[in-house]
């Protein structure tokens, strides 16, 4: 079976970057931790919420790298000198990645009750009509 790509459709010109973004998203390797929600908060804004109980603000970093929102968490292991009879809560680290479309900007990030909220806004699209003059050859 032949793999269908956007280049297979002759009327879709210039979408190679979109195809690369889709492939990168599929390969991002996000595991199931931490769980997250994505909600649309208005016609042009979104909120990503990650459950990061046990992480302090200093344990988290948020960066935008090549149109990709990357949220990382790294807890320090403070178990030295402590004796656990049962240890079900481990110090973990994580990385969550979200590919951002052109025109999507990252706003503020707020930590609240063990939830990290990251707000995104998308620029309102403008309708552009362009007339192309035809020259005689």
From TrEMBL:
Residues 27-137 form the SHSP domain. Signal peptide: none annotated. CDD domains: ACD_IbpA-B_like (cd06470). Transmembrane segments: none annotated. InterPro entries: A-crystallin/Hsp20_dom, ACD_IbpA/B. Belongs to the small heat shock protein (HSP20) family. This is Hsp20 family protein.
């Amino acid at each position: 079976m032949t793999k269908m790509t956007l280049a297979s459709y002759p009327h879709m010109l210039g979408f190679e970057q979109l195809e690369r973004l889709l492939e990168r998203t599929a390969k991002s390797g996000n595991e199931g931790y931490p769980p997250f929600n994505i909600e649309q908060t208005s016609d042009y804004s979104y909120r990503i919420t990650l459950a990061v109980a046990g992480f302090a603000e200093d344990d988290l970093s948020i960066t935008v790298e090549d149109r990709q929102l990357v949220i990382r968490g790294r807890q320090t292991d403070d178990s030295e000198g402590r004796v656990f009879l049962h240890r079900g809560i481990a110090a973990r680290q994580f990385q969550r990645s979200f590919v951002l479309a052109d025109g999507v900007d990252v706003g503020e990030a707020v930590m609240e009750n063990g939830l990290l909220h990251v707000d995104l806004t998308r620029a309102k699209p403008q309708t552009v009509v362009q007339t192309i003059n035809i020259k005689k050859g």
